[in-house]
């Protein structure tokens, strides 16, 4: 069954890229900066360039599956790597034009109390924890975007505490 799922996914992804190229849809997605014991969680997907990136995915915006960005982030963490992070802190949003999409990316930060991962085999090639100062390459530009939001958020939080 996993073979059929993987084969379908490998065929469907290029078709999805073609659809995006022709119609240039506007989408919304989430990315999660997840920390455990001073390490950050990164994943490599089985499709596209196999860059290291942060776990995340699309926000479901059609009824009956409509969800908020934070609900989408929790769902994606559960589906992609089998983790639950509660609470998730909203870091901010940025827009990107990758893969012919106009995508708004909602970014969240959370901590977990376990290092145990169960990556989704069809979609995720690998999931690992990395020290903040030793992130692997090649990596998606998403990592830099979210880390900048996190650094800004953290500096604002520390400034508020000092007042």
TrEMBL record:
Source organism superkingdom: Bacteria
Molecular functions (GO terms): hydrolase activity
All residue ranges annotated as the Nudix hydrolase domain in the record: 25-151
Record carries keyword Hydrolase: yes
Cofactors (names): Mg(2+)
InterPro entries, per the entry: NUDIX_hydrolase-like_dom_sf, NUDIX_hydrolase_dom
Keyword GTP-binding appears in the UniProt entry: no
SUPFAM superfamilies to which the protein is assigned, alphabetical: Nudix
Signal peptide, first to last residue: none
Keywords in alphabetical order: Hydrolase
A Pfam short name: NUDIX
Coiled-coil intervals: none
Name of the featured protein: Nudix hydrolase domain-containing protein
Record organism: Candidatus Ryanbacteria bacterium RIFCSPHIGHO2_01_45_13
């Amino acid at each position: 069954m996993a073979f059929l799922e993987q084969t379908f996914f490998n065929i469907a992804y290029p078709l999805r890229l073609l659809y995006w190229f022709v119609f240039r849809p506007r989408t919304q997605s989430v990315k999660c900066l997840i920390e455990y014991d001073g390490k950050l969680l990164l994943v490599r997907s089985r499709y596209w360039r196999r860059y290291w990136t942060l776990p995340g995915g699309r926000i479901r915006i059609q009824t009956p599956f409509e969800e908020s960005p934070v609900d989408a982030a929790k769902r994606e963490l559960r589906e992609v790597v089998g983790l639950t992070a509660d609470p998730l802190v909203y870091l901010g949003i940025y827009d990107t034009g990758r893969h012919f999409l106009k995508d708004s990316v909602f970014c969240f930060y959370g901590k977990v109390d376990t290092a145990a991962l169960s990556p989704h085999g069809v979609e995720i090639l690998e999931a690992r924890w990395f020290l903040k100062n030793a992130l692997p390459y090649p990596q998606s530009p998403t990592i830099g975007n979210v880390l900048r939001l996190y650094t800004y958020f953290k500096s604002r939080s520390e400034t508020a505490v000092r007042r």
